[in-house]
């Protein structure tokens, strides 16, 4: 029936109701869908005779009742996001203060235990309203996509949910995009409540999770809160001058199941047990590397970070192996300390390849998505222009320079076929690995400084471009002016449709003399 909760016929759960009164539904599956789409729903009770549905905050305290069917999550069988092996130490009367100039999540350093009511009281607040409290870092809502198919094209224009699959060099995509047909974790693992009032707010989530304060999108904001019924959780902040001492204390005393590990420009949420044995110096080293990658992305685009990128490991991302947005969401293999995919992997770091492990391309790629501008990203390049930033970071941060033939043999073969068969642009748009090659050619021929100048020009001008043709023409003209070379032959080689006005605008510039291995496949195509 499409319901992944455990089922028990002839069973009712008195009290602990979420809805004021039972609601009419079509069937058991419809009642289950309502529960799966409600953050704090631990169980539901369906009455076949009246076709009514009631949602429950807990699955415990049940009694026999003939005309009732109960569906429930069994917390003892839920491996994700995890359960405590023993009762943790609960803390109350702790305070937390934060200043903020932008919308983002702020870890308070504590964890909410499953089904335990956390109390939050606002002690002081300055600036704009709109603060809220959140339990849980896993904000991908699977409830809708478990009932309906998800078209990724419909989500890519949503900044908080821009999605992607690994492309190009990432060889892990086919084995990890398991889709949403099989539910591997509860659909909703987070809950938020407003903190606009000075009253004490109570919040609980059946699965528990990291506690955050979410700030409004305004400058000059600050808030101070007191917290009751929370558990100390591992946190690390690279800008904390006492982080080494604090980390030693947390290694001994922090019991929260998930950690919040922050550099200056990026923060990771992964299971606590994956990194509690790491030393402060090791965390510093890896976080500084990730920070340098974020800065490299912004340096290429000509911007500065306004908030930390956030990366959350999840058993089941909404779509694909990873996706971009806030937060970036990854699969759990990057949180496995025994894997070279581990986010904090250090075993093979060295001066010639400081990035060591192999998870960097994927996360660089997702940060690249967060860098994309619609001015220079047109149909067929969503998975391409992101990798301009990926390749740049691999080159400047990881010291891994990608040549044309570093790609998989099958991709090179497809590229050769594409060119020899006439370079039909609609086919170019279907293969991101082929699509990226012209951007690598531009970097190799004219250097990263040319990209920096072009992107800064866009950031300053903010052109009003409404069609793909306008975007392509503007890119060709802008890059040509920057390098003082006519690049029309290069884009013509790859099959780009180029307007006559763009050909005229670049006609006075000397033609760029490019004759690499790709051009040699069909040199006659390299023409105005």
From TrEMBL:
Q: Which InterPro entries match?
A: M60-like_N, Pan_app, Pep_M60_3, Peptidase_M60_dom, TCAF
User: Where's the Apple domain?
Assistant: 3-77
Q: Which residues form the Peptidase M60 domain?
A: 103-447
SUPFAM superfamilies with a match to the protein in the record: Hairpin loop containing domain-like
PROSITE patterns from the UniProt entry: PAN, PEPTIDASE_M60
A Pfam family recorded for this sequence: M60-like_N
This chain belongs to which protein, by name?
Peptidase M60 domain-containing protein
Biased composition regions of type Basic and acidic residues, renumbered to the chain? 155-179
Tell me which species this is from.
Rotaria socialis
Q: Where is this region: Disordered?
A: 155-184
Q: Which SMART domains match?
A: M60-like
């Amino acid at each position: 029936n499409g319901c992944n909760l455990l089922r028990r016929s002839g069973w009712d759960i008195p009290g602990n109701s979420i809805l004021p009164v039972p609601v009419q539904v079509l069937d058991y599956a419809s009642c289950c869908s309502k529960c799966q789409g409600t953050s704090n729903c631990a169980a539901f009770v369906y009455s076949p005779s009246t076709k009514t549905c009631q949602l429950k905050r807990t699955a415990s305290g049940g009694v026999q009742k003939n005309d009732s069917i109960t569906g429930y999550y069994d917390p003892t069988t839920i491996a994700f996001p995890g359960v405590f092996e023993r009762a943790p130490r609960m803390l109350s009367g702790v305070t937390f203060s934060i200043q903020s100039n932008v919308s983002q999540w702020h870890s308070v350093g504590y964890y909410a235990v499953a089904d335990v009511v956390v109390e939050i009281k606002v002690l002081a607040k300055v600036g704009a309203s709109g603060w809220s409290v959140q339990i849980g870092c896993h904000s991908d809502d699977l409830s809708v996509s478990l009932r309906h198919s998800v078209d990724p094209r419909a989500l890519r224009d949503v900044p908080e949910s821009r999605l992607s699959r690994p492309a190009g060099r990432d060889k892990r995509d086919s084995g990890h995009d398991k889709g949403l047909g099989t539910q591997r974790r509860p659909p909703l693992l987070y809950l938020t409540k407003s903190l606009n009032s000075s009253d004490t707010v109570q919040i609980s989530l059946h699965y528990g999770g990291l506690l955050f304060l979410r700030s409004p999108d305004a400058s000059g904001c600050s808030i101070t809160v007191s917290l009751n019924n929370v558990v100390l959780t591992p946190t690390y902040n690279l800008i904390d001058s006492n982080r080494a001492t604090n980390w030693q204390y947390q290694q001994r005393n922090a019991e929260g199941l998930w950690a919040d590990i922050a550099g200056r420009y990026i923060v990771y949420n992964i299971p606590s047990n994956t990194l509690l044995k790491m030393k402060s110096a090791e965390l510093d080293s890896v976080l500084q590397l990730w920070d340098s990658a974020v800065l490299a992305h912004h340096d290429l685009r000509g911007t500065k970070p306004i908030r930390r990128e956030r990366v959350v490991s999840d058993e089941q991302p909404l779509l694909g192996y990873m996706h971009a947005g806030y937060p970036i969401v990854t699969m759990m293999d990057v949180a496995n300390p025994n894997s070279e995919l581990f986010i904090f992997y250090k075993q093979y770091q060295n001066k010639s390849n400081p990035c060591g492990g192999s998870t960097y391309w994927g996360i660089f790629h997702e940060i690249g998505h967060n860098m994309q501008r619609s001015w220079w990203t047109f149909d067929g390049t969503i998975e391409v222009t992101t990798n301009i930033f990926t390749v740049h970071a691999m080159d400047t941060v990881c010291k891994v320079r990608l040549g044309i033939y570093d790609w998989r043999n099958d991709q090179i073969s497809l590229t050769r076929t594409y060119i020899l068969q006439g370079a039909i642009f609609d086919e170019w748009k279907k293969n991101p690995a082929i699509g990226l090659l012209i951007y690598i050619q531009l970097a190799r021929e004219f250097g990263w400084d040319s990209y920096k100048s072009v992107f800064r020009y866009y950031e300053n001008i903010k052109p009003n471009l409404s069609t793909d043709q306008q975007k392509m023409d503007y890119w060709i003209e802008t890059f040509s002016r920057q390098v003082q070379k006519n690049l029309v032959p290069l884009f013509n080689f790859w099959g780009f449709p180029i307007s006559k006005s763009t050909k005229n605008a670049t006609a006075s510039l000397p033609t760029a003399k490019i004759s690499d291995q790709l051009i040699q496949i069909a040199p006659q195509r390299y023409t105005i």
